[in-house]
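Dear support,

I submitted the protein below through the web form. The confirmation email said the job was done, but the results page showed an empty box. After a refresh the structure appeared. I'm attaching both so you can tell me whether what I see now is the final result or a partial one.
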Amino acid sequence: MKVSDLNKGEYLPYFQPYINKISDLVLFDGLEDGLEKTISFLRSIPADKLEYRYEEGKWTIKEVISHLIDSERIFAYRALRFARKDRTPVAGFEQDDYILECYANERSIDSLLDEFVLVKQATIALYKTFVSNSEVLKRTGIAGGGEVSVRALGFLISGHEKHHCDIIRERYL
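What the results page shows now:
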């Protein structure tokens, strides 16, 4: 399953920039890149940059990592619900409100990265349960006011992660 297999109707237009971040990777390659490449990149960031804000009101790198963790959990939860044919619409979430309550800057980088790895491993394990039946990956549900498929959520996780790593490279380092 590659990102080119997605149809435009499988995700909200809002998510297009994240989907565009994924070249034609296979779904599991994108998720596993997060476990290998992203964690390696995040570990390479100098300690004096972890609580740096490139502009007033912007998140620190620690807060970005917390955002990635929260977002992946939420997207994976949505994927689980839709894979199990739960047709109950899922509300969106306000990412800035989550950051206010995550206290990432009070945590060690090791704590954040350990949690990142565990969440990523859980997501990969979840998606492995979906591949036994290719129809599961095509199932959809309503999240944040629009239809999204299980497979699109998997690509969204990877693209969202790449988006934030690019921002860290461009604006923080």
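Response: this is the final, complete result; the empty box was a page-load delay. The CA atoms of residues 143 and 167 lie 25 Å apart.
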